[in-house]
Amino acid sequence: MPLIVTGTIGIDTVHTPSGSAERVLGGSCAYFAAAASHLTPVRVVGAVGGDWPADHRHRLESFRGIDLRGLELRPNSTTFAWGGRYFDNMNRRETLFTHLGVLEEPPPNVPAAFSDSQFVFLANTHPGVQLNLLQKFPHRRLAVADTMDLWINIAREDLLRLFKELHGVVLNDEEAMQLTERRNAISAARAILDLGPTFVVVKKGEHGAVLVHRDGNATIPAFPADEKHVVDPTGAGDSFAGGMMGHLAAKAATDFRSIQTALAWGTVMASFTIESFSMDRLHRLDQMQIDKRMADFRAASRVG
Ligand code: AMP
Question: Which residue in 139, 184, 192, 286 is deepest, having the highest Cβ count within 10 Å?
Fold first, then answer.
């Protein structure tokens, strides 16, 4: 089933305890697409400015499953850019700058060839843009969105309107609690269900994720990564969503059990992303490595 994603395509500058990366390919949409493309073909809708480096384009183009017909180049604009710094244990980060650039302009157009998309992911971007794009997919069977603190702070009303239209929401525990003013991730997730969605996935970093669904609840551990393998956690959340939605679109499934399985695929894809800066690890990934990691993850998370 065609999977479509919109969100940011960014130029990232990242500092972690293992080093720094300047002006590398990043953005919520780019990470999502890179991860999902290993499981199913992905259509990208986004915009970049005249400053977008040619090697970023080549990198995205070189992922076999990514369709860039919905990527708009706006020569007189600037590309979304983000800078972040991670603290010692890599669990926490601070944003150093966010340059919205093209995000302050009208949203990108959806090519007519993409309007039949049934699996829709609205990666992190302004919720007004997410809402606008969602309405371009009248055949949607599964519409899921991610959000983050910036948008909860500056665009809450748009976010609440968006939630009414969604099947699912993916966000991290702090954001879920910030949005709902609850102090526990599960009660925050339940409060989000009251806003409209059928399910919420609350990500808890190195502690995994929780699925709260109208048909039941599930937990999933994170992949047990050794500290020495964690180079840069940037994009882990987007890759998690990419793995999850990639699996669901590949199976054309939307039920609770399938979402539960999809969380494992999300976890596996995120575990690769954090092993390098930018999308380098996702780029040199093959099917055998993915299958091996899934087998390792299943073995590590067996109960009973
Ligand atoms: P994650 O680590 O999964 O939260 O995602 C990090 C990516 O999100 C980076 O590549 C950034 O370019 C991008 N990003 C950072 N802030 C925002 C924002 N406010 N809206 C959309 N994308 C963002």
Answer: 192
